[in-house]
Write a structure and sequence with these properties.
- Two copies of one chain form a homodimer.
- By secondary structure, chain A is α/β, with parallel strands linked by helices.
- Chain A folds into two domains: about 5-175, Response regulator (Rossmann fold); about 175-305, Response regulator (Rossmann fold, 3-Layer(aba) Sandwich).
- Helices cover about 45% and strands about 15% of the residues of chain A.
- Chain A has twelve helices and twelve strands.
- In chain A, the strands form three sheets. In chain A, strands 2-1-3-4-5-11 form a six-stranded parallel beta sheet, with helices on both faces. Chain A has a four-stranded parallel beta sheet with strand order 7-6-8-9, with helices on both faces. In chain A, strands 10-12 form a two-stranded antiparallel sheet.
- Chain A is elongated, with a radius of gyration of 25 Å.
- At the A-B interface, helix 4, helix 5, strand 2, helix 6 and helix 11 of A face helix 4, helix 5, strand 2, helix 6 and helix 11 of B.
- The structure holds a DNA duplex (16 and 16 nucleotides).
DNA sequence: CTGTTAGCGCTTTCAG
DNA sequence: CTGAAAGCGCTAACAG
């Protein structure tokens, strides 16, 4: 029914082994033989059977990319960069790898499920993006899974995620702490003293690191860190909107709002505006990530640019073995402060 | 080295077939035997070999989702909805399907490549999202590929994409033409007569349909369709920015700009603002899609909301056989006009 | 309800 | 440089 490698072999009048060799291109084959085989492949419209090939070779051309939220450009940009480095010539059979992105929705269970699914597929590599959940059980469960994957020959790369202790995973992290600190220092430099902070979900590393940077800046400037001025919520617009309102309620004298990321910042802007406050005259607002839409906010958002695409591309290359792992298996990329219209000196 | 089904069988003191049966859960097995097997699986930390299983069963648990641009929330929202309906219990082995998204970058070649890769993996289903490229060669190539996939038992679903003639593909399309028409009718109703149109890439169906709707509205109102007032470009912010400038150059008397989608509209807004024009007092602006950020534009964007998540979820269910295909294999979802602050009556 | 027996289609030594 | 043969790990009849 469906065309198999044996059919191709018959048509090209060679053995199946030879066909396999030309398809995989990893073994010397006479030019004329190769051509004959290729012609037969073409004429029969043959497509290699991936599962059979993966079974025999004990590894597949699949590369999994895990993201927390596929609808969020933060992950979309990284995933796109990773995938474009992965897909293309260089895989085993037929020379093509299959880079696929899996959406965990931020759920630790789904992350584990996907990891198992990819392990089951004997994936060639797995790239995990975005902050990790810090619950101890999940951390050990993920580490164990990653170790098992490594043992089975799957390359594991973390992109924009802190290193996983006790694993062979290569980590390309972002300096969220440093970025957060820079941002708050900028605000302090403008004269702000009463600043609200809209943080991400409590248990994520990204949240914690950005917040730590913020607090480090406050401490360095001798500003008291009032716990009432920090509110946690998901990384979405709605959280920004509601948290900004809550902060205003708690401290009407606020002169600036620092948000966990750009999306949250946009929500905060909406809330402030609806409360009759001007940005930045009455309240300054800052975000994080510098996603494409941030420059279109009115006023344009002050934020910290993260090299999302660059890190993703590098992760993709490392995952496919086309680039060396960084020394020690860890590399840190720094953010760049982008000062724009949404921050200014406080009133009075 | 790695644990196989035979190891589990040995430990549970049953035959490999029995282990397979409890794992696939598609065959009666005594409760006590099942339990014994499950325990062995657990103790051995056994993970099914996907390729072997797929080879033997002649189908895999992979479901591919093709998107044009993974960094664009338009696709992210659809892909997320599709994937969440796909992943989860219901697959063959171990009860889990692997929904994976593939980023074509809008390139017809990469689309075909991914399709071949998925065919090679014996994917259970494939969902293609977003507008298709209309070049005749590509159209026939894709149709041929989809036919081949269907023949091999892969379910094919199109989501937000026009039907593919001569294939068995189920199509869930959007009424882009109707949406475009409504939007322009709204502008005409406000009194606009000189409107610029920033269209998407020339060869895509989505572009053509939205433009046709716009023109239909013009024609119905007896407004001449000046070709100079339509500019084509990619579906990105930059195109919106530059095209708006170009339109202004061609027709300084413009009172409204209709954009191919929200992202383009945002770019246009930036250009207008920088040209010293107020929105909507001097120029009205409208988008399409109603992506989450559109409500945060200042002023909020008038646009057409498309049921992205709903369509994606349905596509996911159809792809996994949990929902009937619509009659005739085609269903059309309509957009909803969202009138917001970015459109108003023209000057004078 | 459970075991036995053939493969699924490819890769990979091992010989030539 | 090419062929023959032995599986890879699982599923699916077919018996029992």
């Amino acid at each position: 029914m469906t065309v198999t490698l044996a059919d191709v072999a018959a048509r090209a009048r060679v053995s199946p082994a030879t066909v396999s060799r030309v398809l995989n291109g990893n073994y010397p084959v006479a030019a004329t033989t190769r051509e004959r085989v290729l012609r037969a492949v073409d004429e029969l419209d043959y497509v290699l059977n991936g599962p059979a090939s993966a079974l025999a070779a004990a590894t597949s051309d699949l590369v999994g990319i895990l993201v927390n939220d596929i609808a969020d450009p933060f992950f979309g940009i990284m995933a796109g960069a990773i995938q474009s480095e992965i897909t293309g010539p260089g895989g085993r059979a037929g020379g093509e790898r299959l880079g696929v992105v899996c959406n965990t929705g931020g759920s630790p269970e789904r992350e584990l499920t996907y990891l198992t699914l990819l392990q089951r597929q004997r994936a060639a590599a797995v790239v995990l993006t975005g902050g990790a959940v810090e619950s101890p059980e999940h951390l050990t469960a993920v580490s164990a899974k990653l170790r098992r994957l490594s043992e089975a020959g799957t390359r594991v790369v973390l992109c924009g995620r802190p290193p996983a202790p006790d694993t062979d995973a290569i980590a390309l992290t972002f300096d969220n702490r440093g970025g957060g600190q820079q941002l708050t220092e900028h605000l302090i430099g403008l004269g702000h003293r009463r600043m609200g902070y809209i943080a991400g979900p409590e248990e994520r590393t990204t949240t914690r690191h950005r917040l730590e940077g913020h607090r480090a800046a406050l401490a360095a400037a001798g500003i008291e860190d009032d716990p009432a001025l920090t509110v946690h919520g998901p990384y979405d617009r709605r959280s920004g909107y509601e948290s900004a309102l809550e902060l205003l309620r708690r401290e009407p004298g606020l002169t600036a709002v620092v948000a966990a990321n750009d999306t949250v910042a946009l929500g905060a802007c909406a809330a402030l505006r609806e409360s009759g406050l001007r940005i930045p005259e009455d309240v300054s607002v800052a975000g994080f990530d510098d996603l494409p839409f941030s420059i279109d906010a009115v006023p344009a958002l002050t934020t910290v640019r993260l090299p999302l695409a660059e890190a993703g591309a590098r992760a993709g290359r490392i995952a496919t073995g086309r680039e060396e792992a960084p020394p020690g298996g860890i590399a840190t990329a720094h953010g760049e402060l982008m000062v724009r219209g949404s921050t200014g000196a406080p009133r009075g």
